[in-house]
Amino acid sequence: MSNSSDSDALAGARERIDALDARIQALIGERAEIALEVARIKQAQGRSDFYRPEREAEVLRRVAERNAGPLDDATLTRLMREVMSACLALESPLKVAYLGPEGTYTQAAVYRHFGHAVDALPRAAIDEIFREVEAGNADFGVVPVENSTEGVVSHTLDQLVGSSLSICGEVALAVHHHLLSNAGTLDGVRRVVAHAQSLAQCRKWLDAHLPGVVREGVSSNGEAARMVAREDSAAAIAGRAASEFYSLPMLASNIEDEPNNTTRFLVLGRQSVPATGADMTSILVAIRNRPGMLHRLLTPAAEAGVDLARIESRPSRRQAWDYNFFIDIEGHVDEPRVRQVLDAIESEAAFLKVLGSYPRSVGFGAGSP
């Protein structure tokens, strides 16, 4: 008798799921119709701003705020992002340049931020990504900027100095590295290929498990996987996506030395982004060569109660021992308190450039350059 009642309960639960699936599908279709209506309105107004970073950030934050479980915020956010991505593609599909080839963590960052309904354009180098967006061949670009273990990606910072692009967003992803190879066993590996930062992030594991094996740095982990896929005695350090894309078996998983290793990516575009209430402003500052100048630059933020989230220095290349400072300030450039701090810094600095104000990452996922 209990088996019969259990079967009836199961059948009833499945019927309710089927009914909910039909409702969800209908609502997604209704949302898509409204997205097309929005596109028609914007086209009639002569507007081309189909993708609005601040609007997407606000929608995703409300998703998390409304969540009552049992699914976690990251899962619901990911699902909603894909719905938004598909609806946006009906209005105007986005072209997004990233550090390729296919299978890189930067490609994963593209999909995490924009969803999968975009035209993802792999490029061989970071400067190419900047050029593609500047020339209008891509709507946005995604580049790695720093890793919590190995520090900044200096090439990205150097490109920001002379670029006309603005930072429109950020993506923070937890890093999980895997050793991919056709070798079959660790004993068969004679060479390990990866991005230089990934080799550094897995140094202890490599020292312990593959001592003496040659390590070769390449432009990206996706490129490493592409190269290794044609060999039998080499291994690549890359993500799960590269393993699937290049059909490379995983000899070892999660080989990064730091379990909380995270990489931050920047989204580059040609537009400024309005405030959302949870924003970051990035600036570039060149200081005059005087005693105590850096302290004088940072004091206005402390006095105004504005948090400086990050400070990095890079050689300016103007002269020896001269530096540019990249500073992340919590808040938006249009907020009076942030504007006050920027004005005070500019009055003391030799040069100040606002690189962009953008929504803070609603981060989840896995990645690295």
Would you write up a description of this structure?
This protein has helices spanning 2-44, 53-66, 73-91, 105-114, 126-134, 154-162, 196-201, 203-209, 221-228, 240-245, 293-304, 336-348; strands spanning 95-99, 119-123, 140-147, 151-152, 166-174, 178-181, 191-195, 214-218, 234-238, 250-252, 262-269, 279-286, 308-315, 323-330, 351-359. The protein has 369 residues and is an alpha/beta fold. The protein has 12 helices and 15 strands. The chain folds into 4 domains: 1-47; 90-175 and 263-268, Periplasmic binding protein-like II (D-Maltodextrin-Binding Protein, domain 2); 178-252, Periplasmic binding protein-like II (D-Maltodextrin-Binding Protein, domain 2); 279-359, 2-Layer Sandwich (Alpha-Beta Plaits). Strands 1, 2, 3, 4, 5 and 11 form a 6-stranded mixed β-sheet that branches. Strands 8-7-9-6-10 form a 5-stranded mixed β-sheet. Residues 363-369 have low confidence and may be disordered. Helix 2 packs antiparallel against helix 3 (73-91). The chain is globular, with a radius of gyration of 24 Å. This is Bifunctional chorismate mutase/prephenate dehydratase. Residues 282-359 form the ACT domain. Its EC number is 4.2.1.51, 5.4.99.5. Pathway: Amino-acid biosynthesis; L-phenylalanine biosynthesis; phenylpyruvate from prephenate: step 1/1; Metabolic intermediate biosynthesis; prephenate biosynthesis; prephenate from chorismate: step 1/1. Keywords: Amino-acid biosynthesis, Aromatic amino acid biosynthesis, Cytoplasm, Isomerase, Lyase, Multifunctional enzyme, Phenylalanine biosynthesis.
